[in-house]
Amino acid sequence: MVEPLFRVDALGKDFVPRDASTRGVSQLLRAVVAVSFTIEEGECLALVGESGCGKSTLGRLLVRLLEPSSGRIAYRGRDISHLRGAALKQFRREAQVVFQDPFGSLNPRMQVGDILAEPLLIHGIGDREARQARVRDVLQRVGLAPEHLGRYPHEFSGGQRQRIGIARALVLSPRFVFCDEPVSALDVSVQAQILNLLRELQQGLGLTYLFVSHNLAVVRQIADRVALMYLGRIVELATADELFREPRHPYTRALLASVPLPDPARRRDTVPLSGEIPSPLDPPSGCRFHPRCPLADDRCRAEEPQLETRGGQTLVACHKA
Amino acid sequence: MTDTLLSVEDLVVAFPTAGGTVRPVDGVSFGIAPGEVLALVGESGSGKSMTALAIMGLLTRPGRIERGRIVFDGLSLADRSEAAMRAIRGARIGMIFQEPMSSLNPLLTIGEQVAEPLRVHRGLSRAAALARAAELLKLVEMPGAARRLHDYPHQFSGGMRQRVMIAIALACEPQLLIADEPTTALDVTIQDQILGLIRSLQRRMGLAVLLITHDLGVVAQAADRALVMYCGRIVEEATVAEVFARPAHPYTRALLGSVPDLAARTERLRTIDGQVPALDSLPPGCRFAPRCAMREAACERASPPLFDVADGVRAGTAATAACHRAACFRLHDEARVG
Lengths: 321, 338
Fold this sequence. Notes:
The complex is a heterodimer. By secondary structure, chain A is α/β, with parallel strands linked by helices. Chain A has helices at 55-62, 85-94, 112-122, 128-141, 158-170, 188-205, 216-222, 240-245, 250-258, 298-302; strands spanning 6-15, 29-39, 44-48, 70-75, 78-79, 95-98, 176-180, 208-213, 225-230, 233-239, 308-309, 315-316. Chain A has one domain (6-261, 272-316): Rossmann fold (3-Layer(aba) Sandwich), CATH 3.40.50.300. Chain A has an 8-stranded mixed sheet, sandwiched between helices. In chain A, strands 2-1-4-5 form a 4-stranded antiparallel sheet, with helices on one face. Chain A is globular. Chain B is α/β, with parallel strands linked by helices. In chain B, 35% of the residues lie in helices and 22% in strands. In chain B, the strands form 2 sheets. Chain B has an 8-stranded mixed sheet, sandwiched between helices. In chain B, strands 2-1-4-5 form a 4-stranded antiparallel sheet. The longest helix of chain B has 18 residues, at 188-205. The radius of gyration of chain B is 21 Å and the shape is globular.
């Protein structure tokens, strides 16, 4: 059997809220709770969910911008959960990030050429000439021209800045890229350009993506598999085709039904999901979705469902699925 | 005219800059009928929000209305003093914005903030205004409305804060609600709840709504009619059913084509070549021409007016009728040839 690129086992991340002592609730904010999954080489796995579901935290754990509180992350068979120093730096060469806000993540005082050469410099790769050649190569790959090298981030549009952000992630020739809401800040026509680019790059370079997004239509266009999160847990994990064709978890169904479709002929008059996401500081007992679930019964209120197969490939955490 | 609540005619908003005057809104005309939901849709920099700010008299200096008429229920707004505008804003025209947190005062309770327009515009006593505030919170379906009057904004979620904003906006029973990206900062399930609430209140109160959004899904789900803006101009105007079934302007078509499909994965997403031009270097003719796959020589020379899509005849201004028009010379040519 081929070893997956990532194998994640019972991974958890807790935060201590700053004002925890003054609140009458449990002390820890459990952002990610005992999640297990794999990411296969060459695939795009999307993490989907609403604000506060833990999707970005989970992505940050995988590229080790955060250290896990519990559980284990294996990268190509090797435990990276608590790497430090040189070993962590070596891992980062292979695992890079594209951030949501390309403006906030590019140094406004640096020219594009220097921004793109910096990772090579930090990792001590090549001489000056080799680095310049690599920068030009990656710039062209993302659809920018050599004359852009001497310009500053503010001279670019949002879409072009995201191309620079992508180029910076790729300059070290990583195997894995964590894309954290990479098109959420972009206008729809530009969003389509960047999605096409990310798909081309994945195919051309054989990259593996973890793609975090709250936009289900965007996910439909890029993901091979989708993990849906709710309050720190994965509630459904399926191939994109399966998930969009036959969603199994009641939350997945409600989320899909909530997307405003650009088609006035399919206008809805009912709201598919009432209530709001409970605070992760004080999550509901049993199934975390039960207070909003139309199917919930006594078992759902008492017993937390495990993510498991209910026939077929799809994994779902629901007593009723 | 009784069938027009708000009419905007040839509105131009100007901002002086170091490099000369730019006009983020440049000759915009439209009307809203009582009880109608009109969407103003466009990408960043299209001028949609600036149009709304101009109507409300909230342009930040040195921005100003350079030209045009804004008439609301027989009153001219464009040349009204700030004091006179204040009597209309919040009373006869309600407003909600994208970020409810930055529109609410963090130091006042929700009850006081919902009660404020009632005390200012209606002269209600503190007790009467608070009692009415509780009713309004119930109207916007706030769970435990009466109990939450004494809570502060930070104690509410984003969705609940937007409900509070809607309660404030509707406190004085306005005729028009201007909603600028009201659900953009919200999660999709909450967005759905808020759009549903706006629609149901709009129907019950016979409210007209000017809905400003970049999201074509929101337009399709919530609006009766849509105006598509590009670079400060209206490029297409039609009922929502028409815009989605028969988009006439190449920009509208391209925009609709680039929306990712939820139903199936497409081989390659359609995009619009190039980028939106900067306001200080607009092309001389049609502003979309440099990015348009169908441009001809004429498009680069002159700016196309709005043509009636059915017969290619040049359209008049600011009608609220359910007609379909688009600013593209091709419509005119096709009509002549056909």
